[in-house]
């Protein structure tokens, strides 16, 4: 078990109070009850993905119940379409119907969808309820549950409405990943590779050396990957909580492209991590075309992504360059109409670049490589 601290600095004593722990390891779901009880409440509401309501969410409820905390369960249908205004409204109304008040803590159990939605609802209901995250997907354990970004989608784009709302604590139980479908697990490895690319070249090398055990879901390798990724996410968030200094923006490596692919493919067709893998492959090619990295960086990243079972080229259905560019221009990360990219300068370092010629972006979007060899 490892405990990683998210230090939130900036405005004196109040900010210090908002710091929290990310507890990673096997069986840490059992720690939820004691932590919430120590947070000083007797009342919680568990918001869970319906697919794990009777398994992992039940264990969270048991852990809370053992400490005398009443914790009714609300379920959310699985899938990206639950990150909607309609789903948020349903939860707001359910909270109201249960007389949820500001002493009630929200415990989100599920992947990034439930975490982003429940976090958003918690941050807005009664002007803000404490929230705890129990991430049950690899994406959520290494990324979405840490850092306090919440959000829902609009038809015009992903995550267009949301808040910054830091959790009281995060419990990343590796054992909950055992039930995760293979494609979902592999998809989560894209965010893991991202940490190696943006800040941690030693971790990137470790991933190259352990790609086999990781793809094979060896618990020791998975545990190390989750801990190290969560620690990097925590550190970046600690340094730049509100994405003002540019450091947190590094986490968007591959994501400007990824969001465009996800939007065009229809939410949920391409898994988030798959889109991120393709997006990182595009970003590295763009960096290479801009003369920022030698071609071997592109090749090393491609090789690692392929070794982990991830794609580097977009499916035929989402190769419409004009449509992709149109979505990217609407992305909230574009500044004053100019496209902004996070591009590598080597393995383990990225920069924010906003003077990329559109012609080069078109070129990397249009390139169709052969699919990875089996
Ligand atoms: N807030 C952030 O900082 C942040 C960061 C990254 C991603 N995200 C968001 O996260 C979302 C993607 O998250 P995700 O990949 O976790 O998707 P998800 O929440 O849709 O979960 C993926 C699938 O796994 C199922 N599932 C969840 N846990 C399971 C388990 N233990 N066993 C079996 N099945 C399980 C779900 O029902 C779903 O079908 C996107 O909406 C993305 O925008 C947010
Ligand atoms: Zn992501």
Account of the 3D structure:
This protein is 45% helix and 15% strand. With 374 residues, the chain is an alpha/beta fold. The protein folds into 2 domains: 2-180, Rossmann fold, CATH 3.40.50; 192-366, Up-down Bundle (Dehydroquinate synthase-like, alpha domain). The strands form 3 sheets. A 7-stranded mixed beta sheet has the order 1-2-9-6-5-3-4, with helices on both faces. The protein has a two-stranded antiparallel sheet with strand order 7-8. The longest helix has 21 residues, at 219-239. The chain is globular. The model has no long low-confidence stretch (mean pLDDT 93). The protein binds nicotinamide-adenine-dinucleotide (NAD) and zinc ion. Zinc ion binds at residues 143, 191, 255, 272, 276. Zinc ion binds next to α12.
Reading side by side through the largest sheet, how are the strands ordered? 1-2-9-6-5-3-4
Overall shape: globular
Average residue-wise pLDDT: 93
Structural class: alpha/beta
**Biggest beta-sheet profile:** 7 strands, mixed
Architecture of the largest domain, CATH level 2?
A: 3-Layer(aba) Sandwich
Q: Give the CATH topology of the largest domain.
A: Rossmann fold
CATH class of the largest domain: Alpha Beta
Helix-residue proportion: 40-55%
* Whole-number count of domains: 2
The span between the termini is 35 Å
> What is the N-to-C order of secondary-structure elements (H for helix, E for strand)?
EHEHEHEHEHEHEEEHHHHHHHHEEH
Low-confidence stretches: none
Small molecules bound: nicotinamide-adenine-dinucleotide, zinc ion
Tally of DSSP β-strands: 11
Radius of gyration: 20 Å
How many helices? The count is: 15
Percent strand equals 5-15%
């Amino acid at each position: 078990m490892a405990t990683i601290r998210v230090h939130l600095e900036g405005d004196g004593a109040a900010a210090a109070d908002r710091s929290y722990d990310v507890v990673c390891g096997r069986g840490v779901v059992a720690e939820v009850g004691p932590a919430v009880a120590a947070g000083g409440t007797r009342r919680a509401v568990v918001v869970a993905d319906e697919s794990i309501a009777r398994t992992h969410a039940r264990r969270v409820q048991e852990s809370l119940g053992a400490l005398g905390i009443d914790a009714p369960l609300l379920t959310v249908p699985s899938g990206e379409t639950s990150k909607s205004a309609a789903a948020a409204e349903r939860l707001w109304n359910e909270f109201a119907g249960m007389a949820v008040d500001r002493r009630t803590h929200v415990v989100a159990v599920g992947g990034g969808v439930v975490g982003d939605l429940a976090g958003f609802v918690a941050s807005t209901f009664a002007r803000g309820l404490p929230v705890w995250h129990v991430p049950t997907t690899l994406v959520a354990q290494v990324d979405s549950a840490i850092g306090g970004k919440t959000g829902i989608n609009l038809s015009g784009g992903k995550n267009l409405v949301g808040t910054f709302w830091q959790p009281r604590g995060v419990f990343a139980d590796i054992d909950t990943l055992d039930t995760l479908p293979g494609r979902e697990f592999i998809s989560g490895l894209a965010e893991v590779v991202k940490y190696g690319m943006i800040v941690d070249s030693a971790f990137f090398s470790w991933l190259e050396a352990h790609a086999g055990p990781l793809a094979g879901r060896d618990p020791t390798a998975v545990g190390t990957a989750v801990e190290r990724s969560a620690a990097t996410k925590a550190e970046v968030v600690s340094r730049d909580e509100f994405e003002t200094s540019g450091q947190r923006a590094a986490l968007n490596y591959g994501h400007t492209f990824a969001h465009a692919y996800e939007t065009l493919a229809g939410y949920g067709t391409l898994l988030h991590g798959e889109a991120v893998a393709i997006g990182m492959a595009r970003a590295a090619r763009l960096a290479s075309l801009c003369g920022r990295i030698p071609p071997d960086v592109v090749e090393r990243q491609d090789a690692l992504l392929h070794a982990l079972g991830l794609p580097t080229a977009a499916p035929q259905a989402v190769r419409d360059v004009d449509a992709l560019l149109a979505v990217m221009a609407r992305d909230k990360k574009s500044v004053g109409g100019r496209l902004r990219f996070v591009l590598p300068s080597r393995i383990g370092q990225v920069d924010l670049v906003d003077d990329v010629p559109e012609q080069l972006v078109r070129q990397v979007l249009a390139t169709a490589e052969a699919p990875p060899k089996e």
